[in-house]
Design goal:
Length: 422
C-alpha cells in the first residue's frame, strides 16, 4: 500500500474512541461486527488480526465496506457522530478486506469433522455465500445451486460497477470457493430440480434465492412498451437505447438510485427520479443521492404518479403533487395527493423501482408463505418443513446486503445446531 494511503487509514483508525459500549457494533451493524476491535488492530498495524476479528462475523468485508448504507447502519450509531463526523467504519472495513485478499489471509482453517453431512444452498447471493462460508468453516460439505453461470447474485448484476467493482466481488467469492465450496451452475429451482430432490439427497437445505419481481403500482399504462421493472432491468441487462431519451425512475431506494445513475451513464438525455415523499424520507443512502445529483439526475420529490400515457408506447406521465400529513398511528408522515395539482411531463421510458416480490414458483414448494409470498421462517431461519431453512430476500429479510449476510450466518448456525441434534 502506498504510504499516503496507509497514513490516511491510520489517521481514520486513530479517530475511533474504542468505546466500551460499542454502539456501532451492537446497535448499528446488522452483522454485529466487532468494530472497535478490528479498528484497534489497524491502529496497531496488525492487519491480519483485524481480518481475523472481522472473520468471526462476516465474509464480505470488501463488499459491505463499500456498499452498506453506513450512515444508516454502523456510522449512524457512532459516538463520534453525535458532535461531528462519525468514524469512517466502511472505508476501514473495506481496507481490511482488500488487504486480506491481497495478502491471501485465510477466512478459516477447515477441519473435516462434519464432512459426511451434506448441505444444499439454493442461490449464490450474499445470504447463500455467507451461509456457505460459515458452514464450510464448521467442516460441512456444501453445494450451492445457482441459476446463473456465476455466483454473487445482486452483487454482480444488481449493483453497478461504479459502486462495487466486479473484481472485488470475484476475489471475495474466490476466497469462499477456496474453502472447498461446490457449485452447480445454471441450476434453477423449479426448472432443473425440485425441492424434494434436494431433501432426498442432502441433510439440510438453505433457500437463499432472490425475490426480484418488481412490485407494480396498479396505475393505468403500466403495461405500455417502455415500462420496465428496476430489478429485472439491472439483473437481465434489458436496457433499451437511451441516447437522447427522457427516463423517469419511480422510487426512492438504492435500486432507484442504481437504475437512475446507470441509465444516465448509458446516455439518457434526462433522468428524473420521482418520489412521493420528501428527500429526508428517501430510503436511499444520502451519499448515493448526493452523487446522483452531481451526475445530473433530477429529483421530483413529493410527486405521485397518476397514470402513464401513450399509444402502445410510453409518451407522457401524469403526475400529481403531494403534501405530507401526520396521521394517527403512522410513524412517518403520509403523502396525500393535492387536489388539482396534476400536470404532464414528456417521457420515453419509465422504470419502476418500488420494491420486489418473490417469483411464482415459491408457491409450489409446499412451505408456509406470508400474504406477500415470502417464505415464513422462525427466529432460527427454520421453515414449516424440517430440514429446510430460508433466509435473505426470499424470507422477507430487510433489504441490505449486510442483513442478507446476517440471515445467512444465522441460518448456518441453526443448521449446525439442527444437524448436531438429529
Ligand atoms: S461508536 Fe464510533 S468511536 Fe465508538 S467504538 Fe464505534 S466506531 Fe469507534
Amino acid at each position: 500500500m502506498e504510504l499516503l494511503i496507509m497514513e490516511e487509514i491510520k489517521s481514520k483508525a486513530n479517530y475511533c474512541l474504542n468505546c466500551v459500549t460499542k454502539p456501532c457494533s451492537n446497535k448499528g451493524c446488522p452483522l454485529n461486527n466487532n468494530i472497535p476491535g478490528f479498528i484497534k488492530a489497524i491502529k496497531e498495524e496488525n492487519y491480519k488480526q483485524a481480518y481475523e476479528i472481522l472473520s468471526e462475523t462476516t465474509v464480505l468485508e470488501s463488499v459491505c465496506g463499500r456498499i452498506c448504507p453506513h450512515t444508516k447502519q454502523c456510522q449512524g450509531s457512532c459516538v463520534r457522530g453525535i458532535k461531528g463526523q462519525p468514524v469512517s467504519i466502511g472505508e476501514l472495513e473495506a481496507f481490511v478486506g482488500d488487504i486480506a485478499i491481497k495478502e491471501g489471509y485465510k477466512f478459516a482453517e477447515i477441519n473435516n469433522e462434519n464432512k459426511n453431512k451434506k448441505i444444499a444452498i439454493v442461490g449464490g447471493g450474499p445470504a447463500g455465500l455467507t451461509a456457505s462460508a460459515f458452514l464450510l468453516k464448521k467442516g460441512y460439505s456444501v453445494t450451492i445451486f445457482e441459476k446463473y453461470d456465476y455466483l454473487g447474485g445482486l452483487l454482480v448484476h444488481g449493483i453497478p460497477e461504479f459502486r462495487l467493482p466486479k473484481k472485488i466481488v470475484k476475489d471475495t467469492i474466490q476466497k469462499i470457493l477456496n474453502l472447498g465450496l461446490q457449485v452447480e451452475y445454471n441450476k434453477e429451482l423449479g426448472k432443473n430440480f425440485t425441492l424434494q430432490e434436494l431433501e432426498d439427497k442432502f441433510d439440510a437445505v438453505f433457500l437463499a434465492y432472490g425475490a426480484n419481481i418488481t412490485t407494480k403500482m396498479g396505475v393505468d399504462g403500466e403495461n405500455l412498451q417502455g415500462v420496465f421493472g428496476g430489478n429485472q432491468l439491472l439483473e437481465k441487462k434489458l436496457h433499451p437505447n437511451y441516447q437522447g431519451k427522457k427516463v423517469a425512475v419511480i422510487g426512492g431506494g438504492n435500486v432507484a438510485m442504481d437504475c437512475a445513475r446507470t441509465i444516465k451513464r448509458l446516455g439518457a438525455e434526462e433522468v428524473d427520479v420521482i418520489y412521493r415523499r420528501a428527500e429526508e424520507q428517501m430510503p436511499a443512502e444520502a451519499k448515493e443521492i448526493e452523487e446522483a445529483k452531481q451526475e445530473g439526475i433530477k429529483f421530483l420529490f413529493q410527486n405521485n404518479i397518476v397514470k402513464i400515457i401513450g399509444n402502445q408506447k410510453v409518451e407522457k406521465l401524469e403526475l400529481i403533487k403531494t403534501e405530507l400529513v401526520q396521521k394517527e398511528g403512522e410513524k412517518r408522515k403520509v403523502p396525500i395527493n393535492i387536489e388539482n395539482s396534476n400536470y404532464l411531463i414528456d417521457i420515453d421510458y419509465v422504470i419502476m423501482a418500488l420494491g420486489s416480490m418473490p417469483e411464482q414458483f415459491t408457491n409450489n414448494l409446499e412451505l408456509d408463505l406470508d400474504k406477500y409470498g415470502y417464505i415464513i421462517v422462525d427466529e432460527k431461519n427454520r421453515t414449516s418443513k424440517a430440514k429446510i431453512f430460508a433466509g435473505g430476500d426470499i424470507a422477507g429479510c430487510k433489504g441490505t446486503v449486510a442483513w442478507a449476510a446476517r440471515s445467512g450466518r444465522d441460518a448456518a448456525n441453526s443448521i449446525d445446531e439442527y444437524l448436531k441434534n438429529i
